[in-house]
Design a protein that fits this description.
Elements: E1 2-7, E2 10-13, E3 18-26, E4 33-39, E5 46-52, E6 58-60, E7 68-72, E8 78-83, E9 92-99, E10 113-114, E11 118-123
Parallel strand pairs: 2-11
Antiparallel strand pairs: 1-3, 3-8, 4-5, 4-9, 5-6, 7-8, 9-10, 9-11
Length: 124
């Protein structure tokens, strides 16, 4: 089992920046990928960024790759997502996920473990 706990959400002005954190614990040796997803009201859960746990190689959704940065802390206990130039379209609950997918690294179906989510609200 892997436990994931997100933090860092909140209310931010449009144009600002925000960093989210995800603390991982438990049997981390069982996972190869960690990812960030988001879900806005009335929309499907969307994968925005993923990172290969062992090398740190990132993957990004095309819609966010110029503004989002995913990273792992050196000890690999914490996953981060830094978001620049926030817009109202970034308003969503952001979830951390972990698993061992072999493809579709930004699809929610391939991840086994999920955090509880953290709300990000962007106001203009």
């Amino acid at each position: 089992q892997v436990q994931l706990v997100e933090s860092g959400g909140g209310s931010v002005q449009a144009g600002g920046s925000l960093s989210l954190s995800c603390a991982a614990s438990g049997h981390r040796y069982t996972i190869d990928w960690m990812a960030w997803f988001r879900q806005a009201p009335g929309k499907e859960r969307e994968g925005v960024a993923a990172v290969y746990f062992r090398s740190g190689a990132p993957r990004y959704a095309d819609s966010v790759k110029d503004r989002f940065t995913i990273s792992l802390e050196n000890n690999k206990n914490t996953l981060y997502l830094h978001i620049n130039n926030l817009t109202s379209e970034d308003t969503a609950v952001y979830y951390c996920a972990a698993g061992s997918p072999i493809h579709s690294f930004l699809s929610f179906e391939v991840y086994e473990y999920w955090g509880q989510g953290t709300q990000v609200t962007v106001s203009s």
